[in-house]
Structures are given as C-alpha cells and as structure tokens.
Amino acid sequence: MLDTEITKENLNKLVVTFYTKVLKDEKISPFFIEKLGKDMKSEPWQKHITLLTNFWYTISHGRGEYNGSPFAPHLQISGLNQEAFQTWLKLFFSTVEKIYVEDIANKFKERSSIIASNFMRNLGI
Ligand code: HEM
C-alpha cells in the first residue's frame, strides 16, 4: 500500500531507501563516499539522514526543524555535473514512487526538480 500522507517515519524511509540506491550507483556514489564514507550506519551518515529527513519534512510541511543552507555544501563538491543531477533525480523519483500515492509523489518530483535546477544554476553547470 502506498502512503497517503507525509510523516517523519515515511520521510525517514524515503531518505534511507534513496541513499541505499545512491551508494549502489557508480556515477554518484563517489561524491557521497568522499564526504560521508561508505557505511550508512556511521555517525556522519546517521547525521546526514536525520538532517535530510528534517529537510524534507520542512519542505513538505512548510515548517519544521531544518534551518540550514541546503545549497552551501554542494559548492565544496568537485566534479558535479548535469549528468550527476539527472542520476540523483532518477533515483529520487523511483524512490518516492514506491512510497507515496501519485499526488504526493508528483509534489516531491516537482520540488526536487526545482531545487536541482537552482543548484545547477548556482553551480554554473
Ligand atoms: C548530484 C547531485 C547531488 C550530490 C552529489 C549531492 C551530494 C551531497 C553531499 C555529499 C552532501 C553532504 C555534504 C557535507 O556534509 O559535507 C549533501 C548535502 C545536502 N544535500 Fe545534496 N547532493 C546532490 C543534490 C541534491 C539535491 C537535488 C538536493 C535537494 C533536492 C540536495 C539536498 C541536500 C541537503 C538539504 C543537504 C544538507 C545541507 C546542510 O548541510 O544543511 N542535494 N549533498
């Protein structure tokens, strides 16, 4: 059964499932491994997972615990290109489709596409 509402629990599932796919992807895993390592159970990964769960909660509810600067760390990642963002979006889309009903999945797809476009524009790629 697909979820019909967005909760902290299913956002955590979204984030963990997404990064499990990311770490298996040969194109984009190196960017994450360089900053956070290979082990999703490690402290840096657990912090990242909590941060991103809060990020998506805040985006989807219009309020929440995330008050960081989402773009800033991406400036420190060398070699980012359009292809990497396309892969990121492909993995994110396939994850939201498995968790949420179509309406909600579409909203995540729209929001993530807009953010990815903004990031690429800011990076000049
Ligand atoms: C190829 C594309 C991307 C790559 C390789 C990437 C990689 C990363 C990495 C390695 C970090 C951790 C940086 C650190 O802690 O030093 C990070 C943080 C983050 N990413 Fe991405 N990212 C990508 C696209 C995106 C997109 C499209 C979004 C949003 C839709 C996003 C949202 C975030 C957020 C919210 C953080 C945490 C920012 C903070 O510290 O407050 N990323 N990303």
What does this structure look like?
The protein is mostly helical. The protein has a single domain, classed as Globin-like (Orthogonal Bundle). It has helices spanning 8-24, 29-36, 43-61, 82-99, 102-123. It binds protoporphyrin IX containing FE. Residues 28, 31-32, 35, 48, 51-52, 55, 68-70, 73-74, 77, 80, 84-85, 88, 112, 115-116, 119 line the site of protoporphyrin IX containing FE (HEM).
Short description:
This protein has 125 residues and is mostly helical. It has five helices and no strands.
**CATH class annotation:** Mainly Alpha
Instruction: Return the CATH architecture.
Output: Orthogonal Bundle
* Main sheet specs: none
Average pLDDT rating: 98
> How many separate domains?
1
Using only CA atoms, what is the Rg?
Answer: 14 Å
Query: What hetero molecules are bound to the protein chains?
Result: protoporphyrin IX containing FE
Topology of helices and strands:
Elements: H1 8-24, H2 29-36, H3 43-61, H4 82-99, H5 102-123
The protein binds protoporphyrin IX containing FE (HEM).
Key structural traits:
125 residues, mainly alpha, Globin-like, 5 helices, 67% helix, binds protoporphyrin IX containing FE
